[in-house]
Specification:
333 residues, mainly beta, 5-stranded antiparallel β-sheet, 4-stranded antiparallel β-sheet
Length: 333
């Protein structure tokens, strides 16, 4: 019986390896000509935009070719008074109109995001204009730049997902929601254990096909690189899957989106594009079950946020800037 089971497992592993190799062979790296060194990739209103030489361009892909199209970027809207410097406002479509980090503090000396200024509060602006502030105790900060909005429990109201870092116990993923007319932290993952141990969210969506929203994060992306999936179960967060060898942030930068959720295989369940821990490969990962769809070698280390461009009758292309200043699209043949 044990031998039969072992044989089945071996056959399954071999079949999975063959399938992964086949998928990997179908993906290629396409270089995109740029007028100058690429320093940033951002997604604005669903369009991938690239900063090259201080100017902004839109990425245009067709069946075979790729090019940049110059665009005039609008002047950045001034953040509200008291907002975190370089923080970003998250806009909502439900009862939360917008939310942002506020009350800057230098109480935590990590500096993983490029400076040693973090936030001690989160401001929530409701659709009717009323504002409410969630403040942390002196033992923690929000080590984050932009809150994330998602309806985790399916009640039609958004929760707010943030990175909360304890000064002595490290980071936790925290969920803020309205309870009895007041916003408060309603759940968080266990802190990582010590100062300067940080995590970075990698994607939010239904990654396991159960119809509910999950949160993917990378635990200590600079040294550990463990990709974890956390699901909302029984009124709290529970880890439901884990994969090794990933990274979604370069230390000292403000680029927090070095990962992108999309449909990269044929099962119509959300997958994740994310670099390997050494940033030399782009990995396409599935949680149905947890496995690698494909792994594509890069000409140089990944260095910017990732952007997705839809392609008709094909999985989306993944666009990124590399450490040598070049720009590439990873796309299926």
């Amino acid at each position: 019986m044990h031998r039969a089971l072992l044989a089945c497992l071996v056959l399954f592993a071999c079949a999975t390896a063959v399938q992964t190799a086949a998928f990997a062979a179908e993906w290629r790296v396409q270089r995109i000509d740029t007028p100058a060194r690429v320093t940033a990739v951002e997604t604005v209103d669903g369009q991938v935009q690239v900063n090259a030489g201080g100017l902004w361009y839109r990425v245009v892909l067709d069946d075979q070719n790729a090019r940049l199209q110059f665009i005039d970027r609008p002047i950045k809207v001034k953040n509200p008074d008291g907002a975190l410097p370089d923080g970003r406002i998250a806009l909502g479509t439900r009862d939360i109109a917008r939310t942002w980090f506020a009350e800057p503090t230098d109480a935590y000396d990590h500096g993983i995001l490029g400076d040693k200024i973090e936030a001690s509060a989160l401001v929530i602006e409701r659709r009717d204009g009323r504002r409410e502030t969630v403040k942390l105790n002196a033992d923690a900060v929000f080590e984050d730049l932009e809150p994330r909005l998602a309806d985790l429990d399916g009640d039609g109201h958004d929760e707010i997902i943030v990175v909360k870092s304890y000064l002595k116990r490290g980071s936790a993923l925290a969920v803020i929601a309205e309870r009895k007319g007041k916003f408060e932290i309603v759940a968080e993952t266990p802190p990582l254990g010590g100062p300067h141990q940080w995590l970075n969210p990698a994607g939010i969506g239904d990654f396991n096909g159960d119809g509910k929203i999950d949160i993917a994060l990378v635990r200590q992306p600079h040294v550990v690189g463990a990709l974890e999936l956390w699901s909302w179960i029984g009124g709290g967060l529970r880890k439901t899957a884990e994969l090794a060898d990933t990274v979604n942030h370069v230390s000292g930068t403000r680029a927090l989106h070095m990962s992108a959720a999309g449909y990269f295989d044929s099962d119509r369940v959300l997958d994740l594009a994310i670099p390997s821990l050494d940033r030399r490969r782009l990995r396409l990962l599935s949680f149905m079950p947890a496995h690698e769809i494909a792994s594509v070698a890069l000409p140089a280390k990944a260095a910017t946020d990732l952007g997705l461009i839809a392609i008709e009758n094909s999985p989306p292309a993944v666009v990124m800037g590399l450490a040598d200043g070049s720009l590439v699209a990873v796309r299926r043949n």
